[in-house]
Specification:
Layout (H helix, E strand, L loop, with lengths): L3 E4 L6 H8 L3 E4 L7 H7 L5 E4 L7 H6 L5 E4 L9 H6 L3 E3 L6 H17 L1 H9 L17 E5 L3 H12 L3 E5 L5 H7 L2 E2 L2 H7 L2 E4 L13 H5 L5 E5 L8 H10 L2 E6 L18 E3 L8 H21 L15 H22 L4 E10 L6 H13 L11 H7 L3 E7 L7 E9 L3 E8 L5 E6 L2 E6 L3 E8 L4 H11 L4 E8 L5 E8 L5 H9 L3 E8 L1
Parallel strand pairs: 1-2, 1-3, 3-4, 4-5, 6-7, 6-9, 7-8, 9-10, 10-11, 11-12, 13-14
Antiparallel strand pairs: 13-15, 15-16, 16-17, 17-18, 19-21, 19-22, 20-21
Helix pairs in contact: 1-12, 5-7, 13-14
The structure holds 1,4-dihydronicotinamide adenine dinucleotide (NAI) and 2-oxo-3-(phosphonooxy)propanoic acid.
Enzyme class: oxidoreductase
InterPro entries: ACT-like_dom_sf (IPR045865), ACT_dom (IPR002912), ASB_dom_sf (IPR029009), D-isomer_2_OHA_DH_cat_dom (IPR006139), D-isomer_DH_CS (IPR029753), D-isomer_DH_CS1 (IPR029752), D-isomer_DH_NAD-bd (IPR006140), NAD(P)-bd_dom_sf (IPR036291)
Function: Catalyzes the reversible oxidation of 3-phospho-D-glycerate to 3-phosphonooxypyruvate, the first step of the phosphorylated L-serine biosynthesis pathway. Also catalyzes the reversible oxidation of 2-hydroxyglutarate to 2-oxoglutarate.
């Protein structure tokens, strides 16, 4: 069945065409994002959801999204998506991190000129027939200091354009290296210095717990008197009520806002103030940017839904379309090795160590590790999935270690998963043969050769004569057919392992009888 995608925001129709060309069914309902009840009602029918900022992907929407595999944000900010909730449900969230950055930077520059020359007010006055030539007196931008808060993709494009305008550019961004600052021609400063020196401040950070209210009442009080403030990033970065007061007092000479703490913004403390310019979240709204982000998100979502390729996901490592088919059998192997170990481990897991040897070490091991951890945790936590596994392990204090080695010994590729708990350390290794099927090749240092099957019985015993006969007749007497039988031992008379594929479920009474065979140490049913 072809995957189905819902577009619930005003994306460029170019996206619809891409989905159709790729053989994906698509419903284009550009106004749906604003109707959260309707969205919750129908989201269960879709594998993909393509959005801009009007659609809020809340836990409630995700709860109803039984088939959803991917949310694609045609744009940058993903603060309208509950990422932890999406991750917990195994939904990949991807954005288009560069498609609208030039356009948004240009909007900030446009806002700066509009503020400097009061263009909106001068336009309204002129068109009202007033010709108030003496009312409007602007400021020149050349040689003024522009303070950029958040100098990432958009911030650095703004810096480049401002330098072209002969402005002095300073930036506050804890993650901006001195070298990068030097390369792009900006002076890296602390926030206090930026506040004290900037004639114009422009914000370009995401909205996070750290950046919320970065321009608070206290910060605004520390700005240079007569500063102008531009926000084309996110509402909530500036305390709007405090800014309105600072405009009234003359501390701030003007403000240009594209984004607001509540959107759609139909009322706001900034509205109506003479030196305030507002646009309705238009930063990304150019034909070019919308085409870019729509095409890119549709391609990315199609690649994921059709080929398992992941790019620009905010909650999963990238996997190219070429890598995806090579990874697939190893993802299955990693998940099953994890599941094997998880089903055998009753105690608290402290550490899981995964070693990748040979050809597999060249693949995207992050994705394999996520799969292994998901398999490991699933016997205890049914809801865990490949996307959520790393964060679930972290929450539970489980240390996940990865090692790669070039040489795999007997196999082209070997994956070894070791679980460490207070009581024991247990390792299991597997590989993928040329047929693409994962196999178990080593358990606790004992060589075996078995495929994973839906229903298995794992028995550890002392290597003594008579075990196999008694075991097989117990199963036969109980009407349980043995499909495959793999045996291994560390040495003659030492520890032995039987890994048996059975048809159907092993009843508890039969398990008890197997456990009662004198040489048996442990018998455990496993399901894959
Ligand atoms: N108005 C609009 O229509 C649009 C708004 N945006 C907004 O612009 C924001 C920035 O976009 P990009 O530049 O592409 O993102 P980016 O991730 O490239 O840059 C963000 C920068 O903020 C910095 N940062 C993070 N925490 C900080 C903190 N506590 N203090 C100072 N700096 C901090 C980061 O180090 C990074 O360099 C987006 O998150 C989005 O919310 C993006 C596109 C359109
Ligand atoms: O890309 C972003 O982060 C934006 O804020 C653009 O929002 P929009 O797609 O225009 O609703």
């Amino acid at each position: 069945m072809a995957p189905r995608v819902l577009i619930s925001d005003a994306l460029s129709p170019a996206a619809v065409q891409i989905f159709r060309d790729r053989g994906i069914e698509v419903d284009f309902q550009p106004a749906l994002g604003k109707d959260k009840d309707k969205l919750a009602e129908i989201i269960g029918n879709y594998d993909g959801l393509a959005i801009r900022s009007a659609t809020k992907v809340t836990p409630k929407i995700l709860e109803n999204a039984k088939r959803l595999k991917v949310v694609g944000r045609a744009g940058i900010g993903v603060d309208n998506v509950d990422i932890p909730a999406a991750t917990a449900k195994g939904v990949i969230v991807m954005n288009t991190p560069f498609g609208n950055s030039i356009t948004t930077a240009e909007h900030a520059i446009a806002m700066m000129f509009a503020l400097a020359r009061e263009i909106p007010a001068a336009d309204a006055s002129t068109q009202a027939g007033k010709w108030e030539k003496n009312r409007f007196m602007g400021v020149e931008l050349t040689a003024k200091t522009l303070g950029i808060i958040g100098c990432g993709n958009i911030g650095s494009i703004v810096a480049d354009r401002a330098i072209g305008l002969k402005m002095k550019v300073i930036a506050f961004d804890p993650f901006l290296s001195i070298e990068r600052a030097r390369d792009i021609g900006v002076e890296k400063v602390e926030l206090d210095e930026l506040l004290a020196r900037a004639d114009i401040i422009t914000l370009h950070t995401p909205l996070t717990d750290k950046t919320r209210n970065v321009l608070s009442a206290e910060a605004l009080a520390r700005t240079k008197k007569g500063v102008r403030i531009i926000n084309c990033a996110r509402g909530g970065l500036v305390d709007e009520a405090a800014l309105a007061a600072a405009l009234d007092s003359g501390q701030v000479a003007g403000a240009a806002f594209d984004v607001f703490s509540t959107e759609p913004a139909t009322e706001n403390p900034l509205f109506g103030h003479p030196n305030v310019i507002c646009t309705p979240h238009l930063g990304a709204s150019t034909t070019e940017a919308q085409e870019n982000v729509a095409l890119q998100v549709a391609e990315q979502m199609s690649d994921y839904l059709l080929r398992g390729a992941i790019s620009n996901a905010v909650n999963f490592p990238s996997i190219t379309a070429e890598e995806a088919p090579r990874l697939k059998p190893f993802i299955e192997l990693a998940e099953k090795l994890g599941s094997f170990a998880g089903q055998l481990t009753d105690t608290d897991i402290k550490t899981v160590r995964i070693t990748y040897q040979g050809a597999v070490a060249e693949l995207k091991i992050k994705a394999l590790t996520s799969a292994a951890v998901a398999g490991l945790l699933r016997p205890a936590l049914a809801d865990v999935n490949v996307v959520s596994a790393p964060s679930v392990a972290k929450e539970r204090g489980i240390v996940v270690e990865e090692t790669t080695r070039e040489v795999a010994g007997d196999y082209e590729s070997l994956v070894t998963l070791t679980v460490v708990s207070d009581k024991l350390e247990r390792s299991i290794s597997g590989t993928v043969f040329a047929d693409g099927r994962p196999r178990i090749v080593d358990i606790k240092g004992i060589k075996v050769d078995a495929e994973f099957a839906a229903s298995m019985l794992y028995v550890t015993n002392e290597d003594r004569p008579g075990f196999v006969g008694r075991f097989a007749s117990l199963l036969g007497d109980a009407g349980i057919n043995i499909a495959t039988f793999a045996l291994g031992r560390d040495r003659q008379g030492g520890d032995a392992i039987a890994l048996v594929e059975v048809d159907g479920v092993v009843p508890a009474e039969l398990l008890a009888k197997v456990q009662a065979i004198p040489s048996v140490k442990q018998a455990k049913p496993l399901v894959f």
